[in-house]
Amino acid sequence: MLMVEDVDLTPNPHALKFILNKKLLKIETRQYPDKQSAQNDPFAKGIFEIEGVASVFYMDKFVTIEKDKDANWGQIQRPFIEFLKSFDVELIPEEKELETTDRSESELLKKINELLDQKVRPALAGDGGGLEVVGIDGLTVSIKYQGACGTCPSAISGTLMAIEGLLKRDVNPSIEVVAA
User: Fold this and answer.
1) Any idea where the domains of the chain sit in the sequence?
2) What's the CATH number for 103-179?
């Protein structure tokens, strides 16, 4: 049975990170900014059925729920825990491998993702969020914040510059990082 082991606050005042007792995904992250985007994912779709849920992000063994600004956590937490108890994780859609076409971009993407996996994503996950590289155009890397980081003001400014600095230092001094 799927259960919440712990609940963590995030830097985003409207988001909570729910740590679960079982893995949901091994390699992917899933971000749903609204109810319509979750229609093909029974797990996220079920969470959106709870009144007050604004967005859903999940990966590995946690789910980050962002609430509507006028909702309160009391109306979300208990229904979420009940939903988990009755949800069959086998219904979560299968994960896909990342595909790239251009070989030089795929090598660059591989280096960038390895560095982000080591140094950035664990910290963001600790705060109930994530980060997706959505594209590379030459040496401009477009990233999208996920989960609690998606609407958090410090993620948009501070970590964007820190990520760019890290990639400039460890991958290529000409890299530019932009928010998608």
Assistant:
1) 4-91, 103-179
2) 3.30.300.130
What DSSP designation does 68 have?
P
Host H or E run for residue 53: strand 53-59
CATH 3.30.1370.70 correct for 4-91:
yes
Whether the per-residue pLDDT at 144 is higher than 60: the answer is yes
d(CA 67, CA 64): 10
| Pairing assessment for the beta strands 140-147 and 129-137 based on DSSP bridges | antiparallel
Bridge partners (DSSP) listed for residue 10: none
Q: Which stretch of DSSP H or E encloses residue 45?
A: helix 42-48
Residue 70 has pLDDT above 90, yes or no: yes
Q: Output the pTM of the full model.
A: 0.78
pLDDT range class, residue 73, cuts 50, 70, 90 = very high
